[in-house]
Structure formats: C-alpha cells, structure tokens
Records
---
Amino acid sequence: MLSADHLTKEYSEGGDVFRALDEISLEIGERDCLAIVGKSGSGKSTLMHLLACLDSPTSGSVRFNGDDLTGLSASGLNRFRNETFGFIFQQFFLNGRDSVLENVLLPLKIRGVGSAERRRKALEYIDAVGLGDKAKKAAKDLSGGEKQRVCIARALASEPRIIFADEPTGNLDSATGALVEDILFGLNREKGIALVVVTHDEELASRCTRRIELKDGRMIADTANALEVR
Ligand SMILES: Nc1ncnc2c1ncn2[C@@H]1O[C@H](COP(=O)(O)OP(=O)(O)O)[C@@H](O)[C@H]1O
Ligand SMILES: [Mg+2]
C-alpha cells in the first residue's frame, strides 16, 4: 500500500551535512502492524514524518498504491493526507478550550461533511474510545489518557487507511498506556487500519506483528514478530 524507496534525509547545520536517515526502503501492506524502534536520535520520527508526508526527503520517494506522493502539490498532498492518514503524537495537540466533540469533528468539517452528519460520526468515534460521557467537556479538563483517546477518536474521524503513532504512550502511566494500546491494536485487528508505531518501548513493539529497527539513520532489521498463541 505505502512504499518507501531509498529515503534519505539530510540536515545542514552551519556548513556541515548531517544524514539523519540513510537510504531506507520498505513496504507497508494493508492491515500491517509495524513498530519502528531504535535508540533516541536513531531517526524514528524522521522516518515516520517522511512516510506520512509530513516532511519531504532529501532524496528517494514515497508511493501510495503506486502513485508517487513526492510529486503532489501542497494542497493535493494535504487533501491526500487528511483522507488517508491518522496521526497520534506523544504531545496531544488538541484545542484545549474546545470540547471533545469539536476536536473530533474538525477533520470531518475540513472535509466538508455536513454538520448533523459530522456530529453523528464524531459521537460514534468518541463512544468507540470510551468517552461518550465526556463529549461536551473542554479538552483541557481531561486526564492525559483521556486526551490521548480524544486524539485517537479524531484520527478515526478521517477514516484513515494508516494510523501513524509517534510514542503514543510516552506521556501516560503504564495502566493508561495499556488502555490506549488496546484501542489502537483493536482498530488494527477489527477495522484493518494499518498501524505504524514509533516507540522505544520494547513491550509495545512486541505487540506489533513487524519490527523495523533503526541505528544511526540506517535500517538494521526488518523482522516479523512471533505472535503469542492465545
Ligand atoms: N529539524 C532538524 N534539524 C536538524 N537535525 C535534526 C532535525 N530533526 C531531527 N534531527 C536529527 O536527526 C536525528 C534523528 O532524529 P529523530 O528522527 O527525531 O530521532 P528519534 O525519533 O529516533 O529519536 C537526530 O540526531 C536529530 O538530532
Ligand atoms: Mg522521535
């Protein structure tokens, strides 16, 4: 579905060129559940940003079902991203003063979904993450775990094919983090939404079916995880 071909990202700092990502090629299939792991500074976030077209590579390309995304105009890329990808970050990036409902229906509004329909859909996604009773609360008045669940509901509102999550449980205590993980893996299993999780948490990585390891911007492993027999 999504393929990266020889992705390289360089940053120049005062005349020096620093290669943050070095010739990464990989393919993400429908329903994939992939962890990107590696030490801090190894290039995980950079790779995720390039795959999700939040940033452009110095060289190399990203294709979606064969179409080169690197050639799209800024507005075409924005539209594609809004319709195809959902994002979850360590920092929650919510509009704090707005209600949970308003935060979640924003992607639907951007897409031009009518007001009754977007309200109905947003409430459905808010229910799906277990926050049905908090829809009218201001986002800033929620706990960290609740905020992250609002982010998941908002990601769902774009009915994405792929959810990109960068350290999604990094700001959560372990019980709350486990709940957020359960929701994400449930979406992958039940709705078939592909999941790309950036993490330095080995336990979270082990719940994915595939693991890509980066070191100093290079891919040093791409392995299938043995799944526990339940
Ligand atoms: N905008 C930037 N300018 C310069 N260097 C950057 C920038 N973004 C990331 N880097 C560098 O690229 C490397 C990889 O960063 P990153 O992808 O954030 O790593 P990770 O997510 O694995 O911790 C790091 O050495 C980081 O300092
Ligand atoms: Mg990072």
Note: DSSP finds seven helices and ten strands in the chain.
---
Amino acid sequence: MRYEGDIYRPPGEWKSYLLQVTIGCSHNACTFCSMYKDKRFRVRAMADILEDIAMARRYYGDVRRVFLCDGDALAMPTGDLLTILGALYGAFPSLEKVTTYAGPRSALDKTPEELTALRRAGLARAYLGVETGSDALLAAIHKGVDAREMLRAGVKLREAGMDLWVMVLIGLAGRGEPSLRHALDTAAMVNEMRPRHLSALTYAPMPGTPLYRDIQAGRFTPVTPREALEETRALLEHLEVDPLHFTSDHPSNYVTLKGSLPQDRPAMLAQIDAALRGERPIRIEPLRTL
Ligand code: SF4
C-alpha cells in the first residue's frame, strides 16, 4: 500500500484498510495537535486513489471495513467521495462500512442532501473532534469553529444518518476553575448533539505545537493527573445521552474506562474514585501520548 507521511486512525479502526484520500488536515491549526504539522493539505489524485483500491484488492483480497485518511476526508468534493465509495464497495464484496474523520468546517460546508447521499453510498461513520463545548476554549485552541457551529456540524452528521463518534479532550482548559467549566460545557454540548459514541482523550503536551510552547513560556499549566480524573468524573456525571457508548481508552488517558451509559456509569465512576484514592494504578507520564 502507498502512504505519504505518518498515518493516524481512531483506535477502533485497527482492523480497517486505511485508504489515504487526502493528505494532512484541511484546518491544521489546532494549538494542541501535532498530527499533520509536516503535511500541506491536498486531495490526492483520483487516479492514484483508484489505483490504491485496486492494489488493496489484490493484496488483501476482501475487506470488511475501510477508514479514509488523513485528517478530514470530508473536505473532498462530494462527487469525488461518491466515486471512491462506489469503487470501494465495488472492489470489496464483504465491505460493511466506510468511516472517516470529519472536520467541523467540512461538515458545515456540505448540504444535508450531500451528507445523506454520502451516507447512502456507504459512508457509515464520522469521527468528529469536538474537543470542548466551551466557546472561549474553542477560540483559544484555534479550532476554527465556535460552539454553535460545532454543535450544528455534529447534528448535521447525525441527521444525515451517520454513526456519529465524537472525541473530547480532558485537560484542554488547563488547571483550576476552567477545568470544571470545560467538563460541564462539553457535557452540555454532547447532550444536545446526541452522538452514539464519545471518546474522552486526555491532553498530553506534544513538542512542536503552539500549546507546548505556551507551557514552556509559562502561559499554560496542564492539569495534574488528579485534576484530569476529576474532570473526567464531572463529564461522566453530566452526560445524559441514552444510550451512549463511552470510552476513555486512548494512550493519553490516565485510567482506561469503557462502558455504555447510563447503566455502566456507576462502575466507571467507581474506577475513577479508586484511582483518585490511589487504589488503582494510573498510566505514568512517559507512557502517555496524544
Ligand atoms: S485536531 Fe483535527 S482539525 Fe485540529 S489540526 Fe489536528 S487533525 Fe486538524
């Protein structure tokens, strides 16, 4: 398979054939993110993408899942995405779902009819990096959309029939009162957006990013492990989406949590409380990465 640069995918896509349809992230400005800093965003040539699909067919035979890379395949023209989805479902008889990261701006730029057409063509799941429900924090991290726009992007994807999976970032507000505010604002947005899945990652400083430079300059103080756990606890307590598949099992998290809300909430809170009391180990700092 042919890939350009480092490739990222959600943890749950470990079985998927990774097809790179765009290079990098169309936004590429979030202050905490180091993923595509070495790539300039572009859409790959359709001939190359179709050639990759034919190569994957020969190499893998058949596949059941495909994840479209890099950071925001939804930024592609809808017609091109439909061509790719048609080629994938034509090449792999057992293909069950195609999934992708979705940038909020790209979701907003598509009409409901375009998103519905993509869903009908087999784009089954969109991963949306919500990060926070706080308007001020979205501006501070240069997410490129405000809270109202982020909410609208998520609702559009859900209403198009996509299996919406949102990611939020514990610790993004730094220490003190903003940490709890961030958790509550995030829970409030998720409750309105109503995704089926939520992954809570935990901020880890990544060298080369603007936020990392803020830490070095004393302008931003990351939360302690205890504060990160308390923030996760507050988020978990205030989520009202029913049902909601909740995961906090990323290499950035201090404690691994996984369950369905609302029924598994007490057990997950008990795990956090055990970690807060020092009765269960937490991931040590050198092993954490975003
Ligand atoms: S967090 Fe997502 S949208 Fe922001 S720069 Fe990174 S890949 Fe792009």
Note: The chain has a mean pLDDT of 96.
